[in-house]
Structure formats: structure tokens, C-alpha cells
Amino acid sequence: SAKARGRGVFRFYDASLNASSARRSELASRFKSAMHDNEFCLHFQPKVALDDFAVVGLEALIRWDHPEHGLIFPGDFIPLAEEQNYIIPLGRWVIDAVCRQIAAWHADAVPLVPVAINVSAHQLRDNLLPEDVIASLVRHDVNPAWIEIEITESSLIEDTQLARRNLESLAAIGIKIALDDYGTGFSGLSMLKQLPINAVKVDRSFIRDIRNDTDDAVIVASTISLAHNLGLIVVAEGVESKDQLLHLKAAGCDQVQGFFLQRPVSAQDIAPLLRKRHYTFPSP
Ligand code: C2E
Ligand code: MG
Ligand code: MG
Ligand code: MG
């Protein structure tokens, strides 16, 4: 596998990847063979409850373990996959890989938590999305309660009707839906009322300076209050320090995600945390 090939090999992130259009088209032309050669993999980052520091969920994040360029992050190929009409098969791979992983943890007696899958704008409008999800759940004998969907606020700006039908089908089989990157996409309050959304994930741009920037602190506090009044859970993204975490806890935020507690890691590396289940933080 791509993972085995990469083991022990020292590789560099290619900083020119963004700039080079030749590289972009090279990557785009390789999607199909990359999938065939098993070069995509998932990393997992926990969502942690602020009341008792329990791990209450995971988010699956795709990576491309490229034989020449090393580990490529989704920001460098998800937009390409969208452009090249490759996001639907790639997204289908992610859904199936998440279900397969949940089944594998279950078989290893690893305690499960719901695993969130990021769904892109095009995928959200694909009328086969609910069927694809159900097919993977059935294939791996996974209960719908063990997966969640994250959609970005910006993906709801256009064609909300198409998105709504899929979201309602997914919600109807018990899949929870989170609004990702909240605060960056201008979707506004009406979306939260009209769609079957269970949680908002406050974008990390509001968390970064939350200790010093009064505007950010006010935006986050208001979002928490609004979301709670609508019966939604609030997750803060990009928590990188203890101070940010304590601020969010004091502000009544429900859950956090971020490098401070855990960077995204492989399925194998996240298993010990699932077994342990709680963080022992903050220490006195
Ligand atoms: P996202 O869904 O908002 O995911 C959070 C991103 O923030 C991840 O980047 C994660 O590694 C990063 N992150 C987590 N904690 C921290 C922190 O404390 N500080 C900072 N600076 N970053 C943090 P990643 O994995 O590079 O993913 C970027 C975006 O790519 C994701 O944003 C998501 O929109 C998209 N993406 C990832 N996996 C998939 C996928 O399977 N399918 C689709 N369609 N999109 C995906
Ligand atoms: Mg996400
Ligand atoms: Mg996000
Ligand atoms: Mg974000």
C-alpha cells in the first residue's frame, strides 16, 4: 500500500504544488490511477466535549500519499477533483473507506464514536448520495448512527433545494449533519432553521485570536447563544492552545477540535485514544 511504501522514507512537501499549473494537471490526470493504486488514505481527528473532555466523535480527513510528492493535503487536490468532475467517485471512496474503518475498529473491539465525513458542494447535489451512503453502510454492516456528514456553509449558497433533498434523506436514516466552517459562508440564520442540521462548527478564523480580538470573541459568543437557542451543538475548530480551549469552555461551547488536543492521525494511531476515551485535561 501507499502507507507501507512511505514508511521510513523521508519526503518533502512540495511547496510549488499550488503555483504550478503543470503539476495541477498532472495531479488531475492521475486521480483515477491514484484511486486504483490505493494512494488515498484517511486521517482522523477527535472532537472532544468540553464538559468532561470525552472523545465524542472523529472527523475523517482525506490525504493523498503520492509516490513522488509525498503526503498531499486536501486543499491541494479537493478543488481540482471538484473541477475535474472527480469529486463524486472520490467522495464515494471516502464514504466507503470510513464505513470499512468503523467495521474494522468494531471487529478489533475498539470503542466506537461517530465518524464525520466531509461532503463537498457537488457531492451534496448528487442525487445518488443517499444511496451511496446506504450502500456503504450495508456493505460494511455499519449502523447509520456511527457516521455523520459535514457540509460547508458556502456549499449551501446555491441550489439549496437539491442539497435539501439529500440532507433530508440522510437525516431520515439517522445521520447527523454539521455545518462546517461556520461564519465564512454567509448562509445566515435561515439555513439553520430550514435544513436538518444538528451542529455548527465555528470556523477556525474566529478561534485564532479569540483571546485578544473582542470582535471574534463576540461573534463566537453570539454564535453559541444562537445555536443553543436553535437546539444545535457548537464545535470550535482549530483550537491550538490551552487558553483558547479555556475561553471556549467558559463561553459555553460544547466541543473542540484542534492541534492542541490532537492533530489528525492514522486509524491505527487514533485507536489508543478511542480505547482511553477521555482526556485528562486541564491539569491543575
Ligand atoms: P475542514 O473540514 O474544516 O477540516 C479541518 C481542517 O483543519 C483540516 O485540514 C485539519 O487538519 C485542520 N485543523 C485541525 N485542527 C487544526 C488546528 O488546530 N490548527 C490548524 N491550523 N488547522 C487545524 P485538512 O485535513 O487539510 O482539510 C482541509 C479541508 O479539506 C477540510 O476542512 C475539508 O473542507 C476538506 N476535506 C478534507 N477531507 C475531505 C474529504 O474527505 N472530502 C471532501 N470533500 N473534503 C475534505
Ligand atoms: Mg470538516
Ligand atoms: Mg471545518
Ligand atoms: Mg475550517
UniProtKB/TrEMBL annotation:
It comes from the Bacteria. Keywords: Membrane, Transmembrane, Transmembrane helix. The chain holds residues 496 to 779 of 779 of the full protein. This is EAL domain-containing protein. One of its GO terms (molecular function) is catalytic activity. Residues 24-278 form the EAL domain.
